[in-house]
Amino acid sequence: MAKKRRKTTKSHVKRLKMQQKKNPVSQKKYKEKLRIARRKDFFHRLWKVILAVCIALVALFLAGNLALYAKTGETLFSIAQEAKELVENSTEDDFKYAETTYVYSADGIKIAELAEDTDATFLTYDEIPADVVNAFVAVEDRTFWTNSGIDMKGIVRVCLNYVRTRGEVAEGASTITQQLARSAFLSNEKTMLRKIKEIFIARELTKNYSKEDIMTFYCNTCCFANGIYGVEDAANTCFGKSVDELTLSETAYLCAIPNRPEYYNPLSSPENALTRRDKILEDMEECGYITSAECEEAQAQSIEVAEPEEDDTFYNYETTYAINCAVRYLMKLDGFDFQYEFETDEEYETYNDEYDEYYAQAKHKLYTGGYEIYTTIDLEAQSELQEILDEELSFSDDLTDDGIYELQGALTVINNLTGKVVAIIGGRSQEDISNVYSLNRAYQGYAQPGSSFKPLVVYTPALNDGYTASSMLTNIDVTTAKESTSSEISSMSGSRMTLRSAVENSENGCAYWLFNQITPKVGLSYVTEMGFTRIVPDDYTLSASLGGLTYGVSTVEMANAYATLENHGEYTQTDCIEAIYDSDGDDIYEEPESKTVYDRSAADAMTDVLEGVLTSGTAKGAKWSSASDIAAAGKTGTTNDYKAGWFCGYTPYYTIAVWVGCDTPKTVSGLMGNTYPLYIWKAAMLYMTDGLPQEDFDLEISASSSSESSSYTEAEEDELSAEEETETEEADNSTETAEDGTAEETENTIDGTTGDTGTTINGADIPTTDSSAGSSGSTDASGTTDSSGSTDTSGTTNSAGSSGSAGSSGTTDSSDTGGSDSSGGSSTGGSADAGDSAQSGTAGTN
Fold it and tell me: Do residues 637 and 511 touch, judged by C-beta distance below 8 A?
């Protein structure tokens, strides 16, 4: 049997005590040996701790590297090597912005050259005032002159914050050198990978450049809002003088802006930077750069910002939209998180502030980055459709104070096969007036959509939820419903009709009743899924079923949504970009991913119903089937008091959304969804489909969706049959000769309901109402007059103003609604940036 091994004691103190018991020595010798033993034990424990920490750090490093590689395909070693090569190969020119960007049409024709208005002024270190340098150091990076480009305490803080937020937040603690690394070599994406790259590049910058060089680059590349970069140009823009002529107070004010350029924007919000100016002055005093007396004197000085100069550079409609698409794509690459749903108005406003800030930075990058942008814009179609819109609206030549036509229109054309915009008209053209292009209403104009909104938020969602085209709906009195609870609305009485008939005749009561059944939250979720940018908390009411929105929608959004119906419910965010080549010749553009918004069965059933709008509904006056053998589907929309009209429709080939109205809402005689907007749509679609073969929609619909009676009860079948017989009899006996001598349907009667009546405007036969009137004669809440000749409240669109800010007042006819609607309509500005923020609706000059 093996002898059991005795366990040895590793503690020197314990072994000494055991020896003392066996072989005692004098107390003096024992204490000396005990002191030595304790020291040995201390260092032994310390070594074990150090070893454990080292092992833990190595394990953590390896685990972090593996996690980083798994998530990004990069390691710390590769990032470090990349940073080294990037900085070693850099020159002073990499910190200057100068390269021109070019925009091309679908056939390769150059349609625009994009560059900053003037070359940025680059100051040497000796030309930068000491107060500017000291202000930035005091407020941004007090250890700038001594650090290695990074702040270790700040990095630890970022890591802890990253862990605490489970990877959602990875920002902050950037030194001046890190900020330079980000602006010169990286994006603004708020991710840990970008932060790691920023750290490595900052360290390499410190190794390769002097602190004076880094400060020089920083002062010349800081963003001061409004597309202004560098302290010299910022001083000239804000104060009308050179940076070396600024007072201490003006210098501190200027240095406050780069922290949050759009929030501290001196031209739009000059008062916002005052608080940060005072902080910078206090920081400078704390660092010993200025005295207490100088600080107090500077804080007491008032700031007078110079009046901004108007930019008279305007691009045409196709170019402004292409710029907007490219800027938004660069924002995406920079990590901007586009948002379409908001819990509160404050959240919406905060988001728009951040959006504007990112937009300005991305636009500057576009204008100076030397890109080549290839678009899907068809210049021939662009020219022809511009002529069509101009011709259809030529009857009105009233002008605004700016000399621009008062009555305006806009349209967007999407190729259904590619999902791309191929033509976009943002307004009427006018010779010798360049600022006519200052506002592209097709994507910058937000208008109340009226009944054209119903298929998107009411009927297709209902079809998605199990309803069919044959489902029976109740055409309630909307005026009464607005004063009722949800449960009371559900039990309200009214004439009964199928979903198909309700859509074809644009019955407001049916849409209101059905929207109450599916709820506004569910209905509006479909359009926010499709990237509608201006749906706000106040829109989640039943009025949205009839197009009553706070701000409204654009023709690009509506065309994109209707194209989704044609594409069997598959949504792809549209743009007009084919490729974007950076200055190195690399194509950085990737097509957006598609997603299912509506089930195919629901989208196809909606298309089947919308075909009826053109054959027997509110748009039958277009006589599409007589003009083309290609299938078509669509929906009309009219806002209150005939202030705006819409027609959104599609064929298997193209989708076109048309809006007609005034920038400042006003009644336009004869304007409805089935008049001028429909005329423009028909002419535009005939041009786009000219020469294309006959094509029907590829629909997968159930028998119950295509048959009016398949899902009725016996009583419902009898009711519907009686209604159809009455309609047929009245239709057969109600014709009169129009001015051109053709017979036109003038009146249908369904249980006493007034239908389309014929009239002539500008020599054209049109119905005077957008649809059959509901039996209640009720008033809707959206701005539609499609049903019953009734009016609603939301008004419309695009109130042009000099400020260009988004508005929500619009025109509200409270007498029609009991004051219950918050719709309004003005969302555009008087002049618009070439790549203006379609998200926020703000407008500036281009």
Answer: no
DSSP element (H, E) containing 750:
strand 749-750
For position 14, what pLDDT does the model report?
83
pTM over 0.90: no
Question: What's the one-letter identity of residue 406?
Answer: E
CB atoms within 10 A of CB 393: 20
CA distance 499 to 562: 18
Instruction: Single out the residue of 132, 35, 580, 542 nearest to residue 322, CA to CA.
Output: 580
Tens digits of residue pLDDT in 533-555: 999 999 999 999 999 999 999 99
Q: Are 170 and 192 in contact (CB under 8 A)?
A: yes
The 3-class SS string of 470-536 reads CCEEEECCHHHHCCCCHHHHHCCCCEEEEHHHHHHCCCHHHHHHHHHHHCHHHHHHHHHHCCCCCCC
CA distance 421 to 412: 7
Q: Which H, E and C letters describe 146-174, residue by residue?
A: CCCCCCHHHHHHHHHHHHHCCCCCCCCCC
Angle between helices 317-333 and 379-392 (to 10 degrees): 120
Helix (H) / strand (E) element for 767: namely: strand 764-767
The values of phi and psi at residue 559, to 5°, are: -65, -40
Q: How far is CA 602 from CA 519, 561, 650, in A?
A: 18, 14, 17
Number of other residues whose CB lies within 10 A of the CB of residue 284: 25
Chain length of the chain: 846
Count the helices and strands in the chain (H runs, E runs). 30, 19
- All residues at 6 or more sequence positions from 559 whose CB lies less than 8 Å from its CB, including other chains: 412, 413, 414, 421, 574, 648, 655, 656, 657
pLDDT in tens, 251-262: 999 999 999 888
Which residues in 614-653 are b (16+ Cβ under 10 Å) and which e?
A: beebbbbbbebeeebebbbbbbbbbbbbbbbbbbbbbbbb
- Distance between CA atoms of residues 443 and 678, nearest Å: 19
Between CA 382 and CA 688 the distance in angstroms is: 10
CA dist., res. 503 & res. 334, Å (int): 43
Average pLDDT of every residue of the chain: 81
Going by C-alpha positions, the residue among 312, 439, 364 that lies closest to residue 842 is: 439
Q: Convert 552-585 into a string of H (helix), E (strand) and C (coil).
A: CECHHHHHHHHHHHHCCCEECCCCCEEEEECCCC
Kindly tell me the sign of the dihedral angle through the C-alpha atoms of 378, 381, 387, 393. Answer: negative
3-state secondary structure 179-193: HHHHHHHCCCCCCHH
Query: Cα(first)–Cα(last) distance of the chain, in Å?
Result: 96
Q: Where are the alpha helices (DSSP H) in 240-378?
A: 248-256, 273-286, 292-300, 317-333, 345-368
Rounded distance between C-alpha atoms, residue 362 and residue 366, angstroms: 6
More confident residue, 630 or 751: 630
Residue 390, Cβ density class (10 Å: 0-12 exposed, 13-18 middle, ≥19 buried):
middle
Are 105 and 375 in contact, with CB atoms under 8 Å apart?
yes
Q: What are phi and psi of 673, to 5 degrees?
A: -60, -30
Across 172-179, average pLDDT: 82
Residue 566 has pLDDT above 70, yes or no: yes
Q: What percent of the chain has pLDDT over 70?
A: 78
Q: Which two tokens stand for residue 199?
A: 């750290």
CB atoms within 10 A of CB 223: 20
CB 229 within 8 A of CB 220: yes
Using CA atoms, how far apart are residues 621 and 397, in angstroms rounded to an integer?
26
